[in-house]
Amino acid sequence: MSSSKTFPWQTKGQEADAETETNPELYQRFADLVSSFPTSEGMLDQLYRHDQGWHAPKVNMVGAMVADSCFAARPSDIIVASLPKSGTTWIKALLFATVHRDEYRPADADDHPFHSVSPHECISFLEFRLYSGNRIPNLDKLPDPRLFATHVPFVALPRTIVTTTSCKIVYVCRDPKDTLVSTWYFLNKFRARAGMDPLTVERAAELFCDGLSPFGPYWDHVLGYWRAHLAHPEKVLFFRYEEMQRDPAAHVRRLAEFVGLPFGAGEEEDGVVAAIVRMCSFEHMSGLKATKDGSMMTKDGPIANSLFYRRGVIGDWVNHLSPEAARRIDAITQARFKGSGLNV
Ligand code: A3P
């Protein structure tokens, strides 16, 4: 079931739509360029290496390039940025619930949009959903603040996101070993659907260490946003999944302040922060009917909303990765993050 209800802030999905412009020539021009880039085996799709040094399947790289040339940021825009499987669904839920808390009261969680659409439909990806299928969406009518998401590294963000000073970026990263295991699980589901053999976790770890994970290398991605955060803390918020798990309420308060919507004393007294944390928790979100029965259309066909919820715990890598693979990843992390001030 994909929801038929639409909201004013909701963007169009993959469906063809008479109002949406298309520009097949622009998409083709970027597809031709991406075709000239070096390719490598990936965990699911073949990966292309952009000359900025990052890897992605062709269709997403083309989407990112079209977004770069067509997306016009507004000063009030808020962009969620992350690597896949780092807690994107969670931070999207927290940001959406925080920004829209007056319209959709988290205390009355039964009426909340999360009962009909997934956080991925509340906050759409630029390169996966909006700039895909030859479409150039008209995003002008969306109410402020517009919320979008991306998996591209900082260097590849649509340039107006970077140059529009007050447009904000919320980044979340996660321990590389847990990010890897979560990615491996997720992509094996798509391999099964495509009739491919499952990838072993050993092979997935090798590809990950070689930077051949979607939007990887992992370390470049995290460092890119970390440095942007250090240089412009008022523009780039930097969260870690593990710290969010330890104290979600503190993160919701920081998020609200960062986007210019701090919680008032009355809201604190009414327990609004705790209500947002509860509503967006793994237990609540994964149990919703919209999660269990809902799906969202993608280039690969419908994806069940439930796929974005697996275990949601810290340190599950220990159940899957060999000590050697873990040591190899830790060694790369130590070497790459040395002197950066970053401890993941
Ligand atoms: P696991 O596979 O380790 O369980 P993304 O949203 O970036 O695709 O990341 C998915 C990961 O975040 C999955 O991790 C998923 O279970 C976890 N996750 C999804 N929603 C969550 C939530 N509300 N709270 C905590 N973790 C969540």
UniProtKB/TrEMBL annotation:
InterPro entries: P-loop_NTPase (IPR027417), Sulfotransferase_dom (IPR000863). The keyword Transferase applies. It holds the Pfam family Sulfotransfer_1. Its EC number is 2.8.2.-. This is Sulfotransferase. It comes from the Eukaryota. It comes from Urochloa decumbens. Belongs to the sulfotransferase 1 family. GO terms for molecular function: transferase activity. Residues 1-22 are annotated as: Disordered. Residues 75-341 form the Sulfotransferase domain. Residues 1-13 have a biased composition (Polar residues). Keywords: Transferase.
